[in-house]
Amino acid sequence: MTATTIHRQTFPGRLEAVAQVRRFVAELVDGLPRAYDIALCVSELAANAVFHSASGEVGGTVEVRVDLHPPGRPEALTVAVVDQGAPRVPHPRRPAEESGRGLALVDELADDVTRTAATATTTVTFDLGWNL
């Protein structure tokens, strides 16, 4: 089975767009298992894109793709957040550090997190536990 894209949307790379990203994804996954976790993770990834990548610069954008049935995981949903690149790939910080705990939260809630510097994409996968 191949991935089925539910929706793809591009948002301006501004702080107020983070709430728009969260609403966009929350509406798409409403009623699915783990909907709150999915929306929370995507909100964190969108905020990171705005604060820590070129997406937050004037004219920058953040793209969000939501897919059902990613290859090899028919009972899952993936959400990819594509920013416009950063000097380094983000990584979770240790709990004692003042900021940067959001990625640790994403790593904890999602079943899989893939960060690809070449395409400036972070993809989170959630196993939903039933065939969609």
Question: Would you write up a description of this structure?
Answer:
The chain is an alpha+beta fold and 132 residues long. It has one domain: 2-Layer Sandwich (Heat Shock Protein 90), CATH 3.30.565.10. The protein has three helices and five strands; from the N terminus they run E-H-H-E-E-H-E-E. Strand 4 and strand 5 form a beta hairpin.
Layout of helices and strands:
Elements: E1 4-12, H1 15-29, H2 35-52, E2 61-68, E3 76-82, H3 102-109, E4 112-116, E5 121-127
Antiparallel strand pairs: 1-2, 2-3, 3-5, 4-5
Which structural class fits the helix and strand makeup?
alpha+beta
Strand tally: 5
Quote the distance from N terminus to C terminus.
12 Å
Largest beta sheet: strand ordering: 1-2-3-5-4
As a percent range, the share of strand residues is 25-35%
What is the number of helical segments per DSSP (H or I, 4+ residues)?
Answer: 3
